[in-house]
Each structure stands twice: as C-alpha cells, then as structure tokens.
C-alpha cells in the first residue's frame, strides 16, 4: 500500500516515491455527503435460506435510517487509515432478542445466552490466542449502497483447533452481531461423531475489538469446526472495511459505489474474522448486488444467479482465493466502465475500471502493466499467481493505493493519469512507479506476507526496492526520472537524523496507529537498506536469496529472520560473505534502531592508513537528546583514491563492526592524494574526513569535478552542508567545497545543493548578511542560467525539466534576469487569462510567486481571482502558495484572514498551507507569529475541526505552532514562545507543541551563534559585502 500522508512531514517537502519527482499532498476535492436518505425499504432478507444446518433469523432487524452505533467513526477522514485514531472503544451492538435459531450445535435451541460488554486498559499489542487457525471463509454480504448504506452479512469460518480451548475469539468491530443465530458445528475432516460444545455466554471486548464465544466444554486439539456468525453493519463513510462513497460523472449524474480498504486492521469492520496477517485462509465470497452495477473481487466471477423475491438483485459468487490474509479480501460494487489491457501472456485478462474521462488518459498502462508483470515473473521465477487482474480507480483523491490480490485499488485519480500532450516525463515516472509498486506487491506482500505489522517493511520496503528495479529495467522513463531514487536518499537522511525517527522493526507498535509503522522508514529506508545489501552481497547473490525466500514461503507468512536466513545462505554459497558472518547480524543493527551512522575517516600523517570512527548522526546536537548517541552498526566500508580512482567497485573493503566504534583501514595512498569512502553512496551512512582530505577533495572538484562519480559529488555536497549545519564541520570548509557547483551540469547535485542552502537562506533572510548571501548565490547561478539560455526569452513552453529547475532556483534567489522573465510571462497571462499555457506547467509556482512578490495589488488580485476560477487541483495549490509571496504586509495579513473565512479553508490543508507560506517569507515571520497569538481562539477552533475531519486530534494545533516557529532565530523569539506556552498551560497539546517549537528555535539560535560570524567573514573575504548586524 502507498499512503501519501504517511510519507510527508508537517509542511516539509514530501519524500519522493523513489522515481517520483514530487508527491502531491493528500487531496480532498471530492466531497462525500452525509448519509443518503432511505430511498426505499431494504428488500426481504436474503440470508433466511442458508446452506448447511445453520439457522438464521427470518426477520431482519433494521435500524431506522440506519442510526449510527458509533458516530465518531463515520466522519469523513481522508487521511485516516485505521478507524481507531483515538482511544475510545469501538463498540458493537449485540442482538439477543427472541429469534428463531440455535445457539450452538443443536438445532432448535431458543435459550437466552448471556452477552457481556467489557472494556479493559487498552492493550495495543493484543494478539489473538494461538489455539485456533482459520482455514476457509465463506463470506456472504449484501451492501445497500443505493439505499440506506446498510450491510447485511454472514461469515462461515472453518477452523482448525491447534490447542485445546473452551472459547473462540475473533475480531469484530462496529457491527450488529445476531448472537442467537450464531452456529458451531463439525466441519469437514472433523472427528466423526464427536460432540460440539454449546455456547454459555459471549464477551464483547470493546478496547481490543474482539468477540469471544465461551463454550461449556473443550474443543480438543486436532478438531475441525465451522463457526457461523450473522451480522449487520454500515458502509463506512471513511476508508475502512467495506465503505461507501458517491461521485459525480462528467454528465452530472450522481453515482454510488462500494469500495474496500482492510489494511491494516479494518477487515474486522467488514466481517467477523481472525484479523491478523499471519492467519491466512482461503476465501469464498458471495455478493448481492443490483443488476445495474458490477461487482469485482480478488478472483474471477464464478456464477450469477437472480435472488428470489428481490427483483433487480442477483448473487455474484466468486472463485475461491488461494490462502491469504484477511486484509487482502477485496470487494468493489460499481457502475464504472473498463478497458482491457493486452497482457504479456495470453491467459491473463487485465481490466482497468475508471470514469471514462480517466480511462482516456491511460494509454501508458498498456506498456507499464504487462512490462512490470513480465519483469517480476522473470526476476522471481514465479508466475503471477491468479487467473486475472483488475485495477479499479476509485473516483476520489485520497492519496492512497492498495495492492489487493488480483484487484488493485487506486484511491486517487491523479496518480493514474498521463496525457503526453499535457504532462511531462516526470508525471509518467510518477504514475508508472505507483503501478510498479502495487504490482510488485502481488509477490511481496500478497504471495508472501509479513507475519506481523512490525515487519511491514518486508512488504513495503521490498516492493519499493523492486519497483525501483522494474523502472530501471524498463525503458519507460529517462535518466532524469531515475535519478530521483538518489534524491530520495538525501530527503530521507534528513528525516532519519531527527530525534523523532523510529526503528523500522518495532514489536511494541500500536496497531491502531498505522502511521507509526506505515512510514517513510518502512518504505524508503528499507528499500535503501536492500540496495546496500545488494551491493554488499553482490546482485547475483542477493537475487538468489530473494528468489529462494519467495519460493519457500509462498502462500505463507514471514519475519525478518526468514529473509536474513535466505540471503545468508545465498551469500555463503557464492562466497560474497564471510562464513562466520550472517545477514541477520548485519541487518538487525539497521532495522532494530533508529537513525544511521556518521563515519569519520581520519588519515594517518603519511596518509597510507586511516581510522574509521562511527557514531549516530543527529541533526540537532542538543546534548539532552543524545541518550543513544553511541549506537553502532555493521557498516560496509568501500573506498577509492586519486591514485587509482574506481567508483564502480562497491564490494566491501572493510567492515566497521557493530561491536566496535572504530576500525583501521590500510593500503591507502599518500597524504597528497584524496580518498573517497562510500562509493556511489551505496551505503546508508554519512562520511566526514579530516581537514587535509576535505581540502584535497575541494581542489579536485574545482579542477576536474567529473573525475569523481556524480553520486559521490551529490554525497559530498549533502554530507558537508549537513555536517556544517550541525556543527561537525566549519562552514569555511563547506562553502569552499560547494563553490565548484557553478561548473556542475548535472541536475541532481544542483537539487541537493539548493535544498541544503534553503536552510541557510531561512536563517539569514532577516539579517544584514542576506544581501551578501543573495549575491553569492547569484554568482553560482549565473553560469547555469546562461547555460539554459533563457535570457529575455518568452518562448519557454517547451522548457525541459532540468531547465525549469534552473529557472526555479534563479527566481527563488531573485536573479534579476529571472525576475524579468517571470514578470513578463505573468503579464502575458493577465492579458489572456483563458490561455493558461502561456506559463509552462512546471513553472507555475515559480512564475506566480516571483511576479506577485515583485508586483503590486493587480498581480495579487488576479491570482486570487484565478484561484476560484480554476478547476485544476495542482494549479489551485500553486496559486495558493504564490499568494503568500507578496511583500505587502497589509496584503499578507488580509490573506491570513481570508484563509480562515473563504473557500480556502475547505480545501486540503489550505489554510495551513497559507499560514506556513506566509511564515516562511522574509517579512512574514513576525506577521505569522502576531497572527497566531492574536487570533488564537479562531485558529484553535478551526484546527479542532480540521483534526476531527482529517487526522488524530490535536495534530493541527501542533502544526500551527511549529510552522510559526521554524524561521524564528533569536532569543527574543524564544522568550515570546515561552510566554505563549505559559499562557496555555491548561491545554496539554498546545504545551507539547510549544516545547517542540522551542526546541526548533533553540536549534536555530544555536546555529546563528555558531555560524553567523563565520559565514559573514567567508562572504566578505570573497567580495560579497554585508551590512551591520
């Protein structure tokens, strides 16, 4: 699964999805209304005549207008992936009225069975008892998507008894269980003639969402029983279980559909089940639907039969699935059209379902889907396991995609569309990568599944790695898109150097907070760790181990040690890993602790040897935060030298062991020749050097930078600027190294350089040093600007991506020729508002912001008007950000007011985007802070509404305070923050947010005290004059 909000930081640049240039923030432009009115009474129960001996009620019980059992769960929460964002118990309604039916094994019983609702202290690590294992489910469900959003269902579970037990416990959440109709009987393969215990009572544990049937006798180990539970539920209005949504077709027709999102712990909302990933079983799904709709599930349709006495309704029965986890069961009931894709083999039908206007922009899928499937089959030596594949594009913009086995769901239309006439290759790379990721899941995640959510990286990290490989092997996109994988590393390094970073492997996770384990680390850090291991073991041994892992555990579940065992065996057989060393020994040091090492290489006086010392790298050097500062890893050291440069030899030269903080490296050249460690940055660590080696590298870059591999040039830029920012290296050294950038023609080094310099810009923008800094940046950008060749040119509609990046950087630093270009383009657009293509799509944000910053009221008013006229979500986002670029304090203050009173606040994070954008501008810092303090009541109220609607409570409050603090740099700013915190002592969330903000400002103050004078001296020494502080 891909979850975009799980991959973003609060108002920071989103981590790229490997080959994806930029992920859009989670959207919410498709509104989901309140519950539809009851258009007609539900038809007579279709569950009264069931198979077997199970007896069910013949009189359905319907809630009037389907009154909500648990209202807080039914709010529309597009960023919510679990239904448990708070600690309030999720309740079930248990029906125990006078009904026909048996209570447990004998027909005709009508005795009253006691039902107890209970709560206990929330056990976030609760696991089902190990005594039972489901082997087969028969799920019957009838969703009234065009009626009152109710669901009537029944689940029949064949269970194998592994250990003697007197109870049956499974997961149930927010549904009406008909206790008197629950049945327990012998299943096929059970002991002939063995008695079936009867139910004594039921316990509904609300906190851990389990429903337990207690028996009057033991079920002995080896028994096989069938457990049938009828239930009623509601199609949720948020993304959990079987849920409902409505959308409007291009012709204005309003339509409804049923969709599914069961990962990670939402299958229990859809039907009673053993909702843990390792408890795999086969599934037989029967769906009642109206004849004017289509049902799609994991497997091909088997039969369709009319429902007696229910005109216009039919039963769709699907083929039985292979063994799989509950979260993979898929159901979609819809009225969407589809197209057929020609597969890489003739026996595999592939269909894509979407609104027609979306289908018209999917020609690329004819190449991508068969290509990825072919790659995965070739790499793994395992054919795609099912007999069909459906890809359903849900008409929404939720920022999620899910890898349903045989039925992939795309919950965001933006990430499935590509028009070669309107979109560039970057967009193609983005949409192709998303498809590659979900298709790779058909092997890693579906065929082989993590045993528990603490090992979710075995699904998400591996598929991220595999989708990167697929993109490289297929000639879908150019190298400029493939380079994004490298940029991802540097974005991730920043996240993983924060004190808030978490380990990849976490057995103490809270399953009800999936964002804590579906995060940037389980996706991207693990992908990069696998990339590192492939170089450590060799690509041949790595693939051999991965294939063996997949073959042995197909249709099963695994833990990290299983993967380590297979990789070790392959590496030992190919002699790429010492026999006394295992992959588990190495990998555990990277997955069981947060962060990564900084390796400092200090060469001997002669230079022919060196000491490599490791320590945990933290961006903040606050000593109070360094409790685990002495963590160690198994670090694969690779290196080359000026004497014989070979950047392609990425096999390990020396191991810096996880049991030691330092090791010796020998056979280096003399001290007048540089050395470079971590070749092509295949290792997940930063490198620092002694001053002499840094100086040698600086001279090499200034003389002939191309002698050093581009990946290592990128590494040096990112490492040294981060090390300078955190006080490990002087800015004298760092700024001297990056001076070579004016000769750099590759895009990636420039991008990493610009991202790092943005922090310095924010720190200096309100100081006298800023003018000198700006002119210094101009001196670096002018050669690149001249290379692009856009001086005074307005015909830029065909601008290339790398050139658009140069324009963005030049205008961002107010290079006069770029400001002129942006103002001219914007003026042209103002003359012909209907001709939006006057400004290239890639330059929307740059041109709009620059023109408004250097323009007046007319430019601002025009952008404000266009914001409301535009129907393009990306365009609206660019306009929204650009409106905050004005240098007019009155305009900006009014803009902040408008953000809380206009349509902006109804859009995704719109008001917060405005606030953050204003706070980030040079003159906006005091404005944003004053606005925050003077309008706190309105902001807090709005953030509460936002929190309820979009995420866990209180997160928005923290975002506001932190956003206001990110560019504060003085002790006076800290004093104001302390006063603000003390004035809100009655609100723990505000206090907590204030503490976070105080830490940020403290880091900024320390940065200024440590670096301001050094930077000023360096700038002045090179002729970039600054004013007095």
Automatic annotation (TrEMBL):
UniProt region (Disordered), positions on chain: 32-56, 91-111
Catalytic activity: Release of an N-terminal amino acid, Xaa-|-Yaa- from a peptide, amide or arylamide. Xaa is preferably Ala, but may be most amino acids including Pro (slow action). When a terminal hydrophobic residue is followed by a prolyl residue, the two may be released as an intact Xaa-Pro dipeptide
Basic and acidic residues bias: start-end ranges: 97-111
Cofactor requirements of the protein: Zn(2+)
Biased composition (Low complexity): 32-50
Subcellular compartments: Cell membrane
Enzyme Commission number(s) of this protein: 3.4.11.2
Binding residues annotated for Zn(2+), in chain numbering: 437, 441, 460
Annotated site, Transition state stabilizer, chain positions: 523
GO cellular component: cytoplasm; extracellular space; plasma membrane; side of membrane
Residue positions of the active site: 438 (proton acceptor)
Domain ERAP1-like C-terminal: 674-999
Domain (Aminopeptidase N-like N-terminal): residue spans on this chain: 134-328
GO terms of biological process kind: proteolysis
Membrane-topology descriptor: Lipid-anchor; GPI-anchor
Broad enzyme group: hydrolase
One matching Pfam family: Peptidase_M1
Keywords: Aminopeptidase, Cell membrane, Disulfide bond, Glycoprotein, GPI-anchor, Hydrolase, Lipoprotein, Membrane, Metal-binding, Metalloprotease, Protease, Signal, Zinc
Domain Peptidase M1 membrane alanine aminopeptidase, first and last residues per copy: 369-590
Cofactor: binding details: Binds 1 zinc ion per subunit.
Protease found in the keyword field: yes
Superkingdom: Eukaryota
Molecular function, one GO term: zinc ion binding
InterPro entries: Aminopeptidase_N-like_N, Aminopeptidase_N-like_N_sf, ERAP1-like_C_dom, M1_APN-typ, Peptidase_M1, Peptidase_M1_aminopeptidases, Peptidase_M1_dom, Peptidase_M4/M1_CTD_sf
Family: Belongs to the peptidase M1 family.
Protein name as annotated: Aminopeptidase N
Originating organism: Scylla paramamosain
Lineage: Eukaryota, Metazoa, Ecdysozoa, Arthropoda, Crustacea
């Amino acid at each position: 699964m891909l979850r975009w909000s799980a991959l973003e930081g609060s108002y920071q640049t989103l981590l790229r999805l490997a080959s994806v240039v930029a992920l859009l923030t989670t959207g919410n432009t498709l509104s989901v209304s309140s519950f539809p009115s009851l258009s007609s009474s539900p038809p007579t129960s279709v569950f009264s005549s069931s198979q077997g001996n199970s007896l069910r009620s013949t009189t359905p019980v319907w809630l009037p207008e389907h009154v909500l059992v648990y209202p807080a769960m039914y709010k529309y929460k597009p960023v919510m992936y679990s239904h448990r964002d708070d600690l309030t118990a999720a309740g079930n309604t248990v029906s125990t009225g006078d009904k026909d039916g048996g209570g447990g094994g004998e027909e005709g019983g009508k005795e009253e069975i006691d039902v107890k609702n209970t709560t206990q202290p929330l056990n976030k690590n609760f696991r089902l008892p190990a005594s039972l294992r489901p082997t087969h489910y028969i799920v019957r469900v009838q969703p009234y998507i065009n009626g009152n959003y109710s669901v009537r269902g029944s689940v029949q579970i064949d269970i194998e008894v592994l250990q003697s037990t007197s109870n049956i416990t499974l997961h149930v959440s927010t549904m009406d269980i008909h206790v008197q109709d629950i049945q327990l009987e012998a299943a096929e393969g059970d002991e002939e003639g063995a008695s079936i215990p009867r139910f004594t009572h039921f316990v509904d544990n609300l906190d851990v969402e389990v429903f337990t049937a207690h028996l009057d006798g033991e079920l002995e180990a080896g028994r096989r029983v069938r457990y049938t539970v009828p239930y009623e539920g509601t199609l949720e209005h948020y993304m959990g279980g079987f849920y409902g949504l409505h959308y409007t077709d291009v012709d204005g027709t309003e339509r409804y559909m049923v969709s599914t999102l069961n990962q990670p712990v939402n299958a229990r909302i859809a039907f009673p089940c053993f909702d843990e990933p390792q408890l795999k079983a086969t599934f037989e799904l029967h769906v009642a639907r109206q004849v004017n709709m289509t049902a799609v599930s994991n497997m091909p349709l088997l039969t369709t039969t009319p429902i007696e006495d229910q005109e216009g309704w039919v039963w769709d029965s699907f083929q039985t699935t292979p063994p799989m986890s509950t979260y993979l069961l898929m159901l979609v009931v819809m009225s969407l059209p589809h197209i057929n894709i020609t597969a890489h083999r003739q026996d595999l039908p592939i269909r894509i379902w979407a609104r027609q206007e979306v289908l018209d922009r999917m020609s690329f899928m004819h190449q991508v889907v068969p290509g990825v499937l072919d790659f995965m089959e070739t790499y793994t030596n395992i054919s795609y396991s099912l007999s069909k594949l459906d890809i359903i594009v849900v008409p929404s913009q939720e920022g999620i995609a899910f890898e349903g086995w045989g039925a992939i769901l795309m919950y965001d239309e933006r990430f499935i569309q590509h028009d070669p006439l309107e979109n560039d290759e970057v967009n193609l790379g983005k949409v192709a990568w998303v498809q590659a990721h979900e298709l790779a899941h058909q092997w890693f995640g579906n065929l082989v599944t993590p045993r528990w959510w603490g090992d979710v990286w075995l699904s998400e990290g591996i598929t991220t790695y595999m989708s990167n490989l697929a993109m490289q092997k297929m000639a879908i996109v150019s190298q400029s898109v493939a380079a994004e994988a490298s940029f991802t590393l540097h974005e991730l390094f920043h996240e993983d150097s924060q004190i808030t970073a978490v380990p990849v492997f976490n057995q103490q996770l809270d399953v009800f907070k999936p964002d804590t384990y579906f995060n940037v680390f389980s996706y991207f850090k693990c992908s990069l760790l696998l990339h590192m291991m492939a170089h450590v073991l060799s690509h041949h041994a790595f693939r051999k181990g991965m294939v063996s892992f997949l073959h042995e555990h197909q249709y099963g579940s695994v833990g990290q040690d299983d993967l380590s065992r297979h990789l070790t065996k392959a590496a030992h057989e190919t002699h790429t890993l010492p026999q006394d060393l295992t992959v588990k020994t190495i990998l555990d040091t990277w997955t069981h602790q947060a962060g990564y090492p900084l390796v400092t290489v200090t060469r001997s006086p002669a230079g022919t040897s060196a000491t490599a010392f490791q320590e945990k790298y933290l961006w903040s050097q606050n000593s109070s935060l360094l409790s685990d500062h002495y963590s160690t890893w198994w670090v694969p050291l690779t290196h080359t030298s000026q004497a014989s440069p070979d950047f392609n030899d990425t096999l390990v030269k020396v191991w810096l062991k996880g049991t030691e903080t330092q090791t010796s490296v020998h056979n280096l050249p003399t001290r007048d020749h540089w050395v470079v460690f971590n070749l092509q940055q295949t290792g997940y660590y930063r490198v620092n050097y002694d001053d002499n080696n840094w100086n040698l590298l600086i001279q090499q870059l200034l003389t002939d930078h191309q002698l050093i591999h581009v990946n290592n040039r990128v590494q040096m830029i990112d490492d040294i600027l981060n090390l300078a920012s955190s006080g490990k290296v002087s800015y004298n050294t760092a700024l001297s190294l990056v001076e070579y950038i004016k000769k750099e023609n590759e895009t990636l080094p420039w991008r990493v350089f610009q991202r790092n310099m943005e922090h310095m810009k924010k720190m200096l923008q309100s100081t006298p040093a800023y003018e000198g800094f700006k002119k210094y940046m101009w001196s670096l950008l002018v050669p690149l600007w001249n290379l692009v060749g856009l001086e005074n040119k307005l015909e830029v509609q065909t601008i290339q991506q790398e050139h658009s990046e140069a324009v963005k950087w030049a205008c961002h630093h107010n290079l006069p020729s770029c400001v002129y270009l942006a103002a001219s383009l914007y003026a042209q657009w103002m003359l012909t508002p209907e001709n939006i293509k006057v400004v290239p799509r890639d330059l929307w944000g740059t041109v709009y912001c620059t023109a408004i910053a250097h323009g007046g009221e007319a430019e601002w008013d025009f952008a404000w008007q266009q914001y409301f006229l535009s129907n393009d979500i990306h365009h609206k986002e660019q306009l929204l950000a650009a409106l905050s670029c004005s240098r007019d304090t009155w305009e900006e203050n009014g803009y902040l007011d408008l953000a809380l009173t206009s349509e902006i606040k109804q859009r995704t994070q719109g008001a917060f985007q405005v606030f953050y954008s204003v706070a980030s501008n040079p003159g906006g810092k005091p404005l944003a802070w004053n606005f925050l303090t003077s309008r706190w009541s309105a902001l807090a109220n709005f953030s509460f509404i936002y929190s309820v609607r979009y995420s866990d409570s209180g997160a928005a409050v923290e975002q506001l305070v932190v956003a206001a603090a990110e560019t504060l740099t003085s002790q006076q700013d800290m004093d104001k923050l302390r006063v603000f915190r003390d004035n809100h002592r009655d609100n723990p969330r505000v206090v907590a947010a204030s503490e976070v903000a105080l830490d940020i400002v403290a880091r900024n103050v320390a940065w200024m005290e440590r670096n301001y004078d050094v930077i000023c001296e360096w700038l002045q020494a090179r002729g970039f004059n600054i004013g007095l502080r």
